[in-house]
Amino acid sequence: MKIIGSILFCVAMFVLPIFYLFDCIGVSKFIPLVLVWIFGAVVLYIGPDTINEISYGALSIKRDVKAAKDYKEEAEAIAKSIQELAKLMVENDYILAHSTWLAMEGEENESPRRERIQENLASLVGLVDPLRKQDSEWWKKVEEICSNK
Q1: What range defines the domain where residue 85 resides?
Q2: Which of 63, 97, 114 is the last residue of a domain?
Q3: Transmembrane ranges (predicted)?
Q4: What DSSP line would sit under 48-111, residue for residue?
Q5: What is the pLDDT along the chain (149 residues), one digit of tens a residue?
């Protein structure tokens, strides 16, 4: 960010005056333009994390970096809880489906119930694919439980 801030500052100090000198822009537009570029350069140079509040007259923008980080950590914890819940639900569904499969041992292989269970398990595997890649040991345990279908 410091490099970008330095580049903006150089543009404001060396390039923008060229437009003013060749009468491409007037003084009334040149001064605010240069000030905005210098302000942007300073913000980028010192880093946006160091600025907590920007106010202009009655307008004010407050930024609480610590609160934002706390909210992010809380959201990550909730996402982790949801992933654990999804794992448990998938594992339970696999066990229940396997038990149902065993109960239908006497049925013909092409029964609508068996086909539906196979479709549901296939779609369930598709939904849980990211979890399978993250936690391969968990998935191996689930497959071991249901390996003799």
Answers
A1: 67-145
A2: 63
A3: 6-23, 30-47
A4: GGG--EEEETTEEEE--HHHHHHHHHHHHHHHHHHHHHHHHHHHHHHHHHHHHHHHTTTS-TT-
A5: 788 888 888 988 898 899 888 888 888 999 999 999 898 888 888 876 666 667 777 777 776 777 788 899 999 999 888 888 877 787 777 777 777 766 666 656 666 777 777 777 777 777 777 777 777 787 788 777 776 54
